[in-house]
Design brief:
Glutaredoxin
Length: 160
């Protein structure tokens, strides 16, 4: 096989692998909040934490957390899960102080610069359970997530 033929084959293979992944990521996106106080108020009314996924477009680990844990929790159990893109410097977001900001600025203020990071927030935007950083083991991630949700719910006086 010539060098040109190998390059064309490699490009075709990479394209065929990438396209399904892009479609898959679009199908599993969590909603992006317009207002953090509004999102946390809705969650707190049900004695639930506001769960924020700090994500990065194209991050395969973020996709696993979204697809396997947060999206099913949102659809099946009413989990108040949202996502913020760590590189989004243009979409307006109302912060907990009531002022306009962006996801990138808010994430920097939280010092959550690693993706994926899952935050568990209470009514005033305070963290009410230890953040879940990275995806160390898919085998135990569900247990780690449930443990932090139970801690957050207990802090809110809800079901722990």
């Amino acid at each position: 096989m010539t060098l040109l033929a190998r390059r064309q084959f490699s490009a075709a293979l990479a394209g065929s692998l990438l396209l399904p992944t892009l479609a898959w990521a679009k199908d599993t996106a969590l909603p992006v909040p317009v207002s953090l106080p509004g999102a946390v108020q809705t969650a707190a009314a049900k004695k639930e934490p506001l769960v924020i996924l700090v994500s990065l477009p194209g991050c395969p680990y973020c996709e696993v957390v979204r697809r396997n844990y947060l999206l099913p929790g949102r659809q099946e159990a009413g989990l108040h899960a949202w996502q913020l893109n760590i590189s989004d410097r243009s979409t307006p977001l109302i912060g907990f102080d009531g002022k306009a900001t962006t996801a990138a600025v808010q994430i920097a203020a939280w010092k959550a610069g690693f993706t994926p990071t899952v935050l568990f927030l209470g009514p005033n935007g305070q963290e009410i359970a230890e953040r879940l950083v990275g995806l160390g083991s898919n085998d135990f991630y569900g247990a780690y997530l449930e443990e932090r949700l139970a801690t957050a719910r207990k802090a809110l006086g809800g079901k722990g």
